[in-house]
Design a protein that fits this description.
A hairpin with a 2-residue loop joins strand 1 (66-68) and strand 2 (71-73). The chain is of the alpha+beta class. The chain is built from 18 helices and 11 strands. It starts with 7 loop residues before the first helix and ends in a 7-residue tail after the last helix. The strands form 3 sheets. Strands 3, 4, 5, 6, 7, 10 and 11 form a 7-stranded mixed sheet that branches. A two-stranded antiparallel ribbon has the order 1-2. The chain has a two-stranded antiparallel sheet with strand order 8-9. It is 57% helix and 11% strand. Helix 14 (484-510) runs parallel beside helix 17. Bound molecules: flavin-adenine dinucleotide. The site of flavin-adenine dinucleotide (FAD) has 19 residues, from strand 3, strand 5 and helix 12.
Length: 594
Amino acid sequence: MTVYKAPLRDYRFVLEEVLAVEQLAKLPGFADATPEIFAAVLEEGSRLCEEVLFPLNRSGDEEGCTYENGTVRTPKGFKEAYDAFCAGGWTSLACDPAYGGQGLPYTLNFCMEEMISAANMSFGMYPGLSHGAYRALMMHGSDEQKSRYLQHLVDGSWAGTMCLTEPQCGTDLGLIRSKAEPRGDGKYKISGTKIFISAGEHDLTENILHLVLARLPDAPSGTRGISLFLVPKFLVAADGSLGARNGVRCGSIEHKMGIKASSTCVMNFDEAEATLVGKPHSGMRAMFTMMNSARLGVALQGLGLGEVAYQSARAYALERLQGRALKGSAAPDKAADPIIVHPDVRRMLLTMKAHNEASRALACWVGLQIDIAERHPDPAERDSAEDLVALMTPILKSYLTDGGSEAANFGVQIMGGHGYIRENGMEQLVRDARITQIYEGTNGIQALDLVGRKMPVHMGRLMRRFFHPVDHFVAKHKAIAELQEFVVPLAKAFGKLQQATLLVAQRGLADPDEAGAAASDYLKLFALTALAYMWALMAKASLPKTAGDDAGFYLGKLATARFFMTRILPQTSSLLTIISAGAKPVMALDAEGF
Ligand SMILES: Cc1cc2nc3c(=O)[nH]c(=O)nc-3n(C[C@H](O)[C@H](O)[C@H](O)COP(=O)(O)OP(=O)(O)OC[C@H]3O[C@@H](n4cnc5c(N)ncnc54)[C@H](O)[C@@H]3O)c2cc1C
């Protein structure tokens, strides 16, 4: 069976002892966002996740969503859970008070998103997409759109979707065919078919707001000719009351590998009434707001699944009796030792633990930058934080979801054959985790975003936002004896990252295939260095506390940091070797040779 307890102690450590979350309360509008409020909100949220959402995870997977004549039913208990979720104010946490939000930091929302995904990833898709729609409208919507729609997304009574994908177009949005025709009254008619639309239809809310990419008649070809439209399921009158059903219907739902309780819909738009969001032909910009927010949300899904897989595998490894410890029995009174004595089982558990804990710190660090980018009074601080978020978004999306998937697979491995059996719950995590590596831009596309877009911006300005703090940390701490076992490996990995960056930038300029062939390995090298930075920060925070009340916690952190530095981080050497090999071995084979 899977088990889950929200990692509240770890949040306190990361937020209060490593990342100085108290700095947020000094930002305008965040006076209430003290560490105490963070702890109280997370504790309250953890109860909802553990007691309401987690128990619905297995049954939601077994039952799935059902489709009948254009309507979609979510599994038993989802509607009640969603109502409790809204009543508890969980849809409004980081939203603007002007629209009924609680105005709390994104950092806090990040932590909640991890917990929700760990407890029930399918459930989390519904409010997650609504929040993306909220952000897109907040940043690109007209005043009229904001006043008519936002409060409903904030209180959760209406949901949102993101309608990009069409049968002929997934990654390459330039191929979009859905059409938008001006009606002459400032509104538009949208026609076309969208596929794979998460939460496209369901029974949780009274209305659904679809954000749809489509082409105007005079649109240039490719992505420069795409506009963003708002298409409500039910039309909304000026006074906010719901009117007639709009020309958008769910044609069917997909039967898929995982997240079975999240509806994945074919949506048919037949002259549906729409309003334009932002300017004509600038839909990609607006949609990127939604996608970037969603990409970070997906990263947190990966982390959440990695955490629940780890906790469940740990519980199993402590109880399952098989074989004896290599150096002699650890539990001679029992028929066999618990499998946690075996080095290979420990290797898998520690890989999961080391990955999850550093990923959590990295995600919270980026969450803090989002809050600083939005609130800091100094424009230079805001710009710097925004750069760091832009740089780290593809890294988090790709690396945390690969990590979540790997952790779920380790979970199955640790449970042996029992992990493969459905009723034990672990195989669901493998199935659920798999999509996180695909949607919101596949992980391959995230790597291309990193080397193709983020790396060259302003002659590497974004890169320096990460390089400078690491460089500074290494310079400041490398001579401190007790920190050397953490700082020296970090410095070595950082050196390799710098070498790889130069290599990819130079070769990529001469031949784009060089950048393309290096991209995924380069992203991994970057991510490992970022996790090493987090482990070095966490080790520094833990070292002085190994004799106090909570010594076990800090000793555990140090042991895990050592495992990461010695058993995981050395992968950076082989990654640099692979990157150095260049594109030739990848591109040499003709298509017919495959
Ligand atoms: C369960 C589920 C939920 C989804 N939810 C939504 C949603 O809510 N809204 C929505 O609009 N879409 C949604 N999607 C669609 C999802 O975002 C796409 O499936 C994804 O972006 C990939 O597109 P594709 O499937 O067409 O693959 P393709 O684009 O055909 O890609 C196939 C392979 O080729 C690679 N590839 C493609 N182009 C390049 C390139 N230029 N360089 C290198 N490699 C490349 C890809 O990385 C991938 O490995 C969902 C999909 C699923 C399965």
